Amino acid sequence: MSSTRLPGKVLKKVDGLPLLLHQVRRVTKAKMVDKILIATSISAQDDKIEELCKKNKIEYFRGPENDVLSRYYECAKKFSAEIIIRLTADCPLLDPVIIDNTIRLYLENKADYAANTAPPQTRKFPDGMDVEVFSMAALSRAHEQARDPLDREHVTFYFWKYNNGFKTVQLDNARDYSKYRFTVDYPEDFEVVKFIMQTLKAAGRFGNLDEIINILDANPRIRELNSKFDFGIGWKK
Question: Does the N-terminal or the C-terminal CB of the chain have fewer CB atoms within 10 Å?
């Protein structure tokens, strides 16, 4: 809730439903996810997220606001997780098939860390379709060893930004969609996502990645609304 660029962004509503619930409903369709948890902070501002979780019977965990690595570690430890799928709450249009594909890539390669948008320089997926998968063992090691405040705030930097000995793999895509953006960090981002959601609803479509791209291609004015923002800007608070 404390985003400085778009305060309260995860609870902004489209068609009466907070973005966070839109995202949870999409993630429930991923076949390889066993449990969904909301890992929010202990900041008083995030009491509203706890209220939302309780009202909608979603399990949650609250930990440090800025040391998100610690929050993830303690959450995973509490719920005895073996594999963690990190889905940031500013990506309300996540495609459950891509979530499953990233998990499969992680398992097939016996990796420590798998992702589809990191490292960013080789990605082919849009900003807003971010999926990361890592083991509890890797998370524990990062929690113990990471010292840089940025590495602790952004959780997974320690896996892929340095030569730390983790086995990492990246999900490929047949087409390069890296120029597209439908994450939510700015008011312009929210307008783009709202348009996509309302267009999908009007057409009676769930909205996989290709359908979302088709909507943006058919509406260049909407696509241009947030084109000035670089990928990865959401990693800066």
Answer: C
